[in-house]
Amino acid sequence: MTTLAIHNPASGAKIAEVPADDAASVAAKALAARAAQPVWAAAPLEMRKACVLRFRAAVVAELEALAATMTSETGKPIAMSRNELNGLLGRIDFFLAEVDASTATQTVFAEGGMTEQIQHIPLGVVANISAWNYPWFVGCNVILPALLTGNAVLYKPSEYATLTGLNIVRLLHAAGVPTDVLIALVGGGAVGAALQAQRIDGLFFTGSYATGAKIAQALGPRMVKLQLELGGKDPTYVCDDAQVQNAAASLADGAMYNTGQSCCSVERIYVHAQIFDAFVAAFVDTVHGFKVGEPMADDTYIGAITRSAQLDVLDAQVADAVAKGATLLTGGKRLPGNSYAPTVLVGVDHSMDLMREESFGPIIGIQKVASDAEAVALMNDTRYGLTAGVFTPDEQRARALLAQVNAGSVYWNCCDRVSPRLPWSGHGDSGVGLTLSTYGIQTFTRPKAWHLREA
Ligand code: NAD
Predict the structure, then answer these.
(1) pLDDT in tens, 273-303
(2) Which of 16, 185, 295, 446 lies at a CB distance of 3.0 to 4.6 Å from 303, suitable for a disulfide?
(3) Structure pTM?
(4) Which atom of ligand 1 is nearest to the CA of 210?
(5) How far is Cα of residue 392 from the mean position of the Cα atoms in its chain?
(6) What is the pLDDT of residues 90-127, one digit of tens each?
(7) Which secondary-structure segment (H or E) carries 177?
(8) Closest among 297, 292, 295, 211 to 256, alpha carbons compared
């Protein structure tokens, strides 16, 4: 039988070996999900909600062990693993509170014996191919609303977060979701490719642009609903009137939280020339306070880089920037435990990969700008468009600037933030479609139009 070995990225130790899928088992699982879905869809919504509520209780009961598993296989600092699980509870509560109203049949016209209604029916069998960096969030953003709205889910967790993916599935089965309504597929890219080749009614992907583009190309002619939540190169502009200390502390955290491995990490910072030096000094000070260490330690802030290949990307971005004239203020090197020193560069510009390509690590370039117009032009000089932010006490100024920026989410005096109440989406190469908010519930349904004339 094929197996998948799971390693701790910080120590390199093998921590588990789990049975893996192949093309034949993926096909069999897709058929099983197809057969099971109609019964699940026909069950009362209250029953499906009760399953999710029991799942919530199980997450609370097992939180410490679930966090430890996530940390052991991803290198995420344990405090941040706990935060992710606690954050998940708010998302569950949102889905449970909103699913009834979001999916209720709407009567949009009733006159002269003619009635028009919109009914939200499940897509059917949906595939969820997922990333490792926030495995509970990105897994559950799809799995929970998809199940609540009556879909069956074929879920392939990342090969770097498989144990966590299997925990999600185990707890949902224990909470009452039938085993063929939610099925885990274990493996790497080949298993994802085998899954996308099955008869499915929707594919919901979270991961890199490169993989997302391959999936889009393969699915294009098949008319399967496709959502892609991809990477970003998220900018923030700090205006001349910003509170320097607050902005620096918030943005250092936004750039380096989760060891910089967040889709919405702050990846580029533009600072007005008038406060540039003060901002950079405060930023570097904050970064020097970040404790790099063993991911299981409570006070670790910078953990392991999950995929060791990413260390080469970080080294290459630093080398490229320095070769083109940037100044390295701190960091710029690998550390024991597959980690990377928090890294700050100035004297950067858009000729450098550091300012153009996703870093996905604890490194940041800070560029000086002379005006708001220059900042907006630079923020928009990207193929991505996930999030963008502005720091200034002046709300009107922030709103005027952010209105000009191409991004799915914009932030005033905050960053690296996701809310279950708001849609999560990207412009450009950051993806298509959305999760979260009431739209992120309806996206797992097909609106069916009813034209009803009384005889
Ligand atoms: P990845 O593209 O390497 O892998 C994502 C998933 O795709 C994995 O499950 C992988 O096994 C699978 N896969 C790989 N090749 C495949 C193929 N040919 N066919 C089908 N499936 C295949 O990405 P990753 O390293 O897991 O995640 C990091 C990326 O995800 C970053 O770019 C990050 O910004 C992005 N991300 C985006 C969001 C968002 O909400 N926009 C959230 C989290 C992560």
Answers:
(1) 999 999 999 999 999 999 999 999 999 999 9
(2) 295
(3) 0.97
(4) 2
(5) 27
(6) 999 999 999 999 999 999 999 999 999 999 999 999 99
(7) none
(8) 292
pLDDT digits (tens, 9 = 90+) for 310-324: 999 999 999 999 999
Task: Confirm if 224 and 126 have CB atoms less than 8 A apart.
Answer: no
Q: How far is CA 8 from the centre of its chain?
A: 21
For residue 24, the one-letter residue type is A
Residue type, 241: D
pLDDT at 351 over 80: yes
- Report how far residue 29's alpha carbon sits from residue 382's, in angstroms, rounded to the nearest whole number: 40
Select from 202, 222, 191 the least CA-distant residue to 24.
191
Q: What are phi and psi of 197, to 5 degrees?
A: -80, -10
Helices (H) and strands (E) in the chain, counts: 14, 22
Among 73, 168, 258, 263, say which to mutate for ligand 1: greatest number of ligand atoms within 8 Å of CB. 263
Two tokens at 361? 């690590």
1 has pLDDT over 90: no
Kind and range of the H or E run holding 127: strand 125-129
Q: Tokens 């185990």 sit at which residue?
A: 170
